[in-house]
Amino acid sequence: QLQLQESRPGLVKPSETLSLTCSVSGGSISSGTYYWGWIRQPPGKGLEWIGLIYSTGSSFYNPFLKSRLNISVDTSKDQFSLKLTSVTASDTAIYYCARLSMDCGDTSCSFSAYDLWGQGTMVTVSS
Amino acid sequence: QSVLTQPPSVSGAPGQRVTISCTGTSINIGAGFDVNWYQQLPGTAPKLLISGNNNRPSGVPDRFSGSRSGTSASLVITGLQADDEADYFCQSYDRGLTGSVFGGGTKLTVL
Q1: Residue B69 dihedral angles phi and psi, to the nearest 5°
Q2: Distance between CA atoms of A90 and A111, rounded to whole angstroms?
Q3: What DSSP line would sit under A39-98, residue for residue?
Q4: Residue pairs between chains A and B whose CB atoms are closer than 8 Å
Q5: For the segment A33-90, what is each residue's pLDDT rounded down to a tens digit?
Q6: Interchain contact, B46 vs A96, CB within 8 Å
Q7: φ, ψ for residue A90 (rounded to 5)?
Q8: I want to staple B95 with a disulfide (CB 3.0 to 4.6 A). Which of A10, A86, B6, B27 is the partner?
Q9: Cβ pair A46, B105 in contact under 8 A
Q10: pLDDT tens for residues B44-69?
């Protein structure tokens, strides 16, 4: 069955760029009506939405992160990636990739739920 | 501070019923956007529990149910079991953010 797996960058220095990749296995990132997203969870805290991307490259970003964020997709590798620039300690978190399903009617689609998640990868920002 | 408001904690004895609330505003839940619920067991990734306000994915017991009314939603767990002990998060869509929003999470303790 379909599985998501985040890469493991581990430690990132303040002011540098955080790069993460989510690999989709057991299926194609281009099949079905799904967006692919990033969500993070600071230690001991709640979930924060980072952004979404479709296989065509159409994307949505959290406006509070937008100036530092880039999400891309590589359909040939069934991967999507996140780059967050100028990181600080407040970017320390578990980063999850997830699949967002869509509800589609005759003429339009709407976002549904995050129905599949990666196991998460801990990213620490520290010098 | 999370866009959707949940109580930090709830508790109940085995076999009892608990309710977890999720309060939003007129630009998310109140705008008619669906609410989803996720269960996060300790040390694991969140798992979809309820989608579209009150739909259970395959494999989720019918002890779990959801509802939405106005600017709020609720998750009800009946027949509490020890392995229900987890964090529970609500999630919806927000017009202002133009994206997903989550509640701060509620820690369920089974006494």
Answers
A1: -150, 125
A2: 28
A3: EEE-TTS--EEEEEE-TTS-EEE-TTTGGGEEEEEETTTTEEEEEE-S--GGG-EEEEEE
A4: 66
A5: 899 999 999 999 999 999 999 999 999 999 999 999 999 999 999 999 999 999 999 9
A6: yes
A7: -70, -10
A8: B27
A9: yes
A10: 999 999 999 999 999 999 999 999 99
Q: Which of B80, B64, B66 is nearest to B34 (CA)?
A: B66
Query: With contacts defined as CB-CB under 8 Å, which chain A residues touch B97?
Result: 49, 62-63
Residue B97: which of B21, B24, B8 has the closest Cα?
B24
Reported as type and span, the H/E element at residue B77 is strand B72-77
Q: What angle do CA A95, A98, A99 make, to 5 degrees?
A: 165
Buried b (16+ CB within 10 A) or exposed e, B65-98: bbebeebbbbbebeebeeebebbbbbbbbbeebe
Q: How many angstroms separate the CA of residue B70 from the nearest CA in chain A?
A: 19
Cβ atoms B108, B10 nearer than 8 A = yes
- Interface mutation vs chain A, best among B29, B37, B100, most A CBs within 10 Å: B100
Candidates B38, B101, B104; nearest CB to A49? B101
